[in-house]
Design a protein that fits this description.
mainly alpha, 11 helices, 35% helix, P-loop_NTPase
């Protein structure tokens, strides 16, 4: 997993950089990159994407995190950040034209579902962002209902929000604090307004509901992962994943690619004890994770990437 790094506030980037800078030929077929940012799988991958040649030519050199989503910072012909304006975790169908429009150009990281779940639970309870939205009496079993299947949902949902069912509406009233004021800005230059839930719902809301996931959605997500993604990394194999990415796009390994710019607040561990789940497994995302693992391992073989072959990359980056 990535190492920790400190983030600092920056001014909004200058606008007017939507031209066509020179782009390295090795990754023309990947462009424009469409990033599916599944929560708690590795925001730090954003730094790798923004530093691709021609990707974000108008971003200040020290700009990290979601500030790059400000219109005009990145070049949409290389790294398409336009559908991040309204949400930092948009679903595939939030992209104009949805899955079919971006098919073959999506990139993402996947994380072992129970680890991702526990990381999200810790983030919501102990985090220093707007995601502190759960009521104190919300149990771990309640959180299983709320946080299960997020990867699957993101791969098949988005766009127009559906009306809440009576079940989901009752669940929110019982377990989510809908009135707590927002305490932290989503990005440094946005105003601090509204409630924490409104901010949370803006970041995640297009695909959150319904809370349950159908088997048809699971099958569709698996198909999309197999056919629509040019790159899939694995959070638990971060260094190997970044090495694979660099080989695929003929990029040089650098130290910043292995830093963690958004560690879970108050909890720097990368592996959680799943014993607290009493044998529970995410009923939706595990099938998707198995497919992601298959694709990842197939790409390792296809590009002849291994722990041995990556030693040079890791030495260049100073991580081994």
């Amino acid at each position: 997993m990535a190492k920790s790094a400190t983030n600092s506030a920056v001014s909004p980037p200058a606008l007017g950089c939507e031209g066509s800078p020179k782009v390295d030929p090795p990754f023309h077929d990947f462009l424009p990159i469409e990033w599916v940012h599944i929560p708690k799988t590795g925001t730090s991958f954003l730094d790798t994407l923004t530093h691709l040649p021609g990707a974000c030519p108008c971003c200040p050199a020290n700009l990290r995190d979601y500030g790059v989503f400000e219109p005009g910072c990145c070049n949409a012909k290389v790294f398409d950040t336009r559908f991040f304006v309204d949400a930092v975790h948009p679903g595939i169908e939030d992209l104009p034209g949805g899955f079919e429009a971006g098919k073959g150009r999506f990139m993402t990281f996947m994380r072992q579902p129970e680890q991702r779940f526990l990381s999200m639970v810790h983030y919501v309870v102990d985090g220093n962002d707007t995601e502190t939205i759960t009521k104190p009496d919300m149990t771990l079993d309640d959180k299983k209902v709320f946080f299960a299947g997020w990867a699957t949902k993101m791969l098949v949902r988005g766009g127009k929000r559906l009306p809440l069912s009576s079940h989901d509406s009752t669940f929110l009233e019982r377990h989510i604090d809908l009135t707590k004021p927002a305490r932290f800005k989503r990005v440094p230059y946005e105003p601090l307004v509204g409630t924490a839930w409104e901010s949370f719902n803006q970041d995640y809301g297009g695909w959150l509901f319904p809370l349950s996931v159908s088997q048809d959605e699971v099958e569709e997500a698996k198909m999309r992962l197999r056919t629509g993604f040019s790159f899939i990394g694995m959070t638990e194999k971060w260094e190997l994943s970044i090495c694979l990415f660099n080989v695929m796009l003929n990029q040089t390994c650098c130290a910043d690619q292995f830093l963690n710019f958004r560690p879970t607040y108050g909890n720097h561990q990368t592996t959680y004890d799943t014993a607290v789940l009493n044998g529970w497994r995410d009923p939706y995302d595990n099938e998707l994770f198995n497919v992601a693992t298959e694709v990842f391992e197939a790409n390792l073989k296809r590009y002849n990437v291994s722990e041995v072959s990556c030693q040079r990359c890791w030495r260049e980056a100073g991580v081994r």
